[in-house]
Input
Amino acid sequence: MTNRSAFVVAMVAGLFVSAGARTGAQQDETSLRVNVNLVQLNVAVTDNKGNYVTGLRPQDFVVSEDKVVEKIATFEEGSAPNRNLAAPAAAGSADSSDIFQPAQTVAAHPDSAPEAPRVPVSPFSGANVFILFDTSNYMYRGFVYAQDAISGFVRSMQGASKVALYSYSRNLYRAAPLTPDHMRVLQGLRNTVAGDQAALYDSLLLTVKDAARVSGRKVIVVFSNGPDDSSTIPPEDVAELAQSTGTVIYIVSTRQAEQEPMSTAIFERMSKATGGKAYFAKSWRDEAKAFASIQDDLAHLYFISYYPLPNANRGWRTINVKLAGKELQKYHVRTRDGYRLQQAKAVEEDFARTGAGPETK
Output
């Protein structure tokens, strides 16, 4: 068999670092090829009171995949510059232990916070934020208030690299593709109208696929006013794809948790699986507080990446992140718990079939 070049697309573990790689290989027609480039994690560290722990260093984290300890390649805290740990330090440059300050706690956004979100310095620096707005018939009563809450959230994201605004009822509508122009996003928000039944999980899956094609931090913020009554896709499929593409999902629901116990359980499980959070707002003031809390969370996340060591596992890979040292064991770590490798050919065909992509209308 002669050598041939194959274009391989890997949709795994947080990022299409290189959408594909050309390699020469001798292989059987039925062999499965998967290319793992880089695994990216968004990690929150909090104390017993829910306060964020800041000032941690790369050596304070132990990251393992399928119980194999991995070497951290890049490290970033909140809005601080990304540090490439794989590259050798320049002569005379400061060691990482000289750069980082001792860990300290920062109070999480309080319940009594003012209506206007409290924005840390560049909390969305380098982030790609997809907002998915429920415009189904569940939204008729609070439509204007929801638009105002989302508008305030968009205006606050001055440090974000790009923002997209999608809306959904039975179908997904890309009101504003991923763009650095926030005015375009606000215009798209003003043009949204209330529709019919809600297909949240179908629409969220398409949004995750769009986000998967973007490099860097990927965040989806869902604004939902009711349960899903029209989707053909189960929420478990959405959560798994979000985990495998490193996409964090936050959900702001206007229904009180006790009103929709099934949706509440799904929202909490899905957001937790991706490293995000779910919020249940009783009023438009609570909606603003929820968006402010999301800002706080993103501002205090640690952004960690690694190149996984050789691993024969071609299915679900379990990720574990813990803190090193006895003095740090009192803190809590929140991140996604793994990812599933995706076959390159299946991924290409899936994108071609659905037309997923940030520029697709």
About this structure: The CA atoms of residues 136 and 193 lie 9 Å apart. The longest helix spans residues 284-299. The mean pLDDT is 78.
